[in-house]
Amino acid sequence: MIRFSSTILKTLLAIAFFALPALLSAQVGSARRAMALGVNGGVVLNTVGFDPTVKQAMHLGPTFGLTFRMTSEKYFKSLCALQIELNYAQLGWKEEVLNGNGEPLPDTYSRNMNYLQLPFLARMGWGKEKNGFLGFILAGPQVGYCFSEASQRSSTWTLDTATGLPDRPNGLCAQYDLGVQRRIDYGITAGAGLELSTKIGHFVLEGRYYYGLGDFYNNAKKDVFGRSNNNTIAVKFTYLFDVRKEYSDIK
User: Fold this and answer.
1) Whole-number Å distance between alpha carbons of 167 and 104
2) Within its chain, how far is the Cα of 36 from the centroid?
3) Strand 78-95 vs strand 56-57: parallel, antiparallel, or unpaired?
4) What is 105-116 written as a DSSP string?
5) Predicted confidence (pLDDT) per residue in 143-190, tens digit
6) Phi first, then psi: what are they for 213, rounded to 5°?
7) Is the Cβ–Cβ distance between 178 and 215 less than 8 Å?
8) Does the model's pTM come out above 0.90?
9) Angle at 50 between CA 47 and CA 51, to 5 degrees
C-alpha cells in the first residue's frame, strides 16, 4: 500500500483548494470560454489503511458518473481548466485471511462500501485543443459520502477454540462486525491521462490515485483502529461534448 506523509498531503490539499478559484479569474494568458459536459465510467482498486494492519488484496469495484469541465485560459502552452464530477464508486477491502500464526486460511471476507464522490479538480493540458491528442494532469480535493455497505464471508469460518472468536493474527477481528462509523470521506486525488478531441466530442482515458485523509471508523484511543482510510487507484474513460466553445485565437 502506498503511504504518504499526512502533513504533505494536507499541504497539497490546501494548495489545490485555493488554486481552483484562480482558474476562474486568471486572465494572464489567452482567454477561453469553453464548457463541456459528459459521462465517465471505469473501475476502482481500493485498499484500506488499517492500523493495526489487516492483510488485504485489492478490492475491485465499478465507478461511473457525470463530468463538467470549464476551460478558462491558455497560459503559454498550458490549457487551464476546472473539472467537477459527481460519481458513484464501490470501495471497500478484500481480506487475505490468516490465522493466529500468520498462516493462510480457507476463510474469505470482503466489504463493499458504496460512495457518492464529489471531486473538484484543477486540470492542466498540453497538446491539441481540437482535432488531435492532448495530455493532461489533474489534482484537487475530493469529498464523499458512504450511503450503504455490505459484507460477504465464506461458509467456512475458522474460530479460535479458546475464545470462540475468529482465529486471526493478534486476535484482530473487530472489522467483521463493525459498520461504517464516519460516513463522510475526504481527501486528495491526482492523476494523468490522454484526451482525443474530435468533431463529435472529447474521448478521455485517465488514471488517478486517491488518498483519504479521513477515517471511516472512529479513531480515539479507546477504539480498535487508529487509522482506517481509503487508498484508491481508478482507471476511467470519459466522453464529453461541448456545450459552449469560444477559442478566439484558434483558426
Assistant:
1) 11
2) 22
3) antiparallel
4) -S--EEEEEEEE
5) 999 999 999 999 999 999 899 999 999 999 999 999 999 999 999 999
6) -90, -15
7) no
8) no
9) 155
Amino acid type, 83? Q
Determine phi and psi for 74, rounding to 5 degrees: -115, 115
| Residue 119, preceding peptide bond in cis (omega within 30° of 0) | no
What are 2's three cell numbers?
Answer: 502506498
Q: How far is it, in rounded angstroms, from Cα 244 to Cα 241?
A: 9
| Cell, residue 103 | 498462516
9: exposed, middle or buried (Cβ count in 10 Å: 0-12, 13-18, 19+): middle
Cα–Cα distance for residue pair 189/103, rounded to 1 Å = 35
Grid coordinates given for 207: 488514471
Q: To which residue does cell 478559484 refer?
A: 21
Torsions phi, psi for 169 (to 5 deg): -55, 130
DSSP per-residue codes, the chain: -----HHHHHHHHHHHHHHHHHHHH--SSEEEEEEEEEEEEEEEEEEEEEES---EEPEEEEEEEEEEEEEEEEETTEEEEEEEEEEEEEEEEEE--B-TTS-B-S--EEEEEEEEEEEEEEEEEEE-SSSEEEEEEEEEEEEEEEEEEEEEE-S---B-TTTSSB--GGG--GGGT---S--EEEEEEEEEEEEEEETTEEEEEEEEEEEESS-SS--STTSS-SEEEEEEEEEEEEEEEEEE---TT--
For residue range 191-216, what is the model confidence (pLDDT) as tens digits? 999 999 999 999 999 999 999 999 99
Cell 463493525, residue located: 178
